[in-house]
Amino acid sequence: MARTRFAPDRGLSARMGLTMGLLAVLYVVLIGAIALAGFGWVLGVVIGLGALWLQWFFSDKLALSAMGAHEVSPADEPELHAMIDRLCALADMPKPRVAVADADLPNAFAAGRSPDRAVVCVTRGIQRRLDDRELEAVLSHELSHVAHRDVLVMTVASVVGVLAGIMTRMLLWTGLMRGGRNNNAAVMVLVVMIVAAVVYAVSFLLTRLLSRYRELAADRAGAILTGQPSTLASALTKISGEMAKIPRKDLRQAEAYNAFFFVPAMTGKVDIASLFASHPPLQKRLDQLNRISVELGQE
Which site from 80, 96, 104, 196 is most exposed, i.e. has the minimal number of CB atoms within 10 Å? Predict the structure, then answer.
């Protein structure tokens, strides 16, 4: 964690370390399976390092582009910059770049590989729906992600799942090309595809578990920094309620980025998939904020 006044979280640090270690093992297993299938270590390593490099250096730009967001200067958004200036001074941390997405979806997210390279983005929808105190509470939540460096871990963690998906498609195409001439090659490709599918499933589960915990950690750290957990609870309740008013088409388009959002873009469907949600249940987040209010001596 970077040296800031955000409350440290040993549980989050331990989970990030464990997740990265297990994902490294999965990566080695995937590359090894590809090599044993006759595709060579070089191909796997090149693709793996290429995917990691892209995510490492361009994750912030990719996130902003996906949301149709753009960076804004203090002259463009003086009030937004003033909020982040105050919070960064309070937390004693570098100020990230500031961006705004021209979307009605009420949300916010942080991206970037380090506190010095981070960007915090809010949508027009969240600016319209929250008052200044609520928006500042949300920004404190997002800045805690930057300070804890869990944005970086989530970005790197997603590489293994992406890589497994790329490898599966590539091997499927190669297997179809070879299958007619070499049955053994087709069998090996099938085995590697199964390994890739398992790696993807395990990496998906690991990143979801980490994502759910890191949201609770950011709620806690952000609320303690500002001393206003009830304000963050108000913002959470208001945004969650407003999600129901967003067109389903817009929600489906944004669901791919749920792991980085303040509140997930949910279509309202409740099924077994909720067990693998990127965020903890709303009530669990509100209960935690209520406990923090009690600890701080607030009603």
Answer: 104
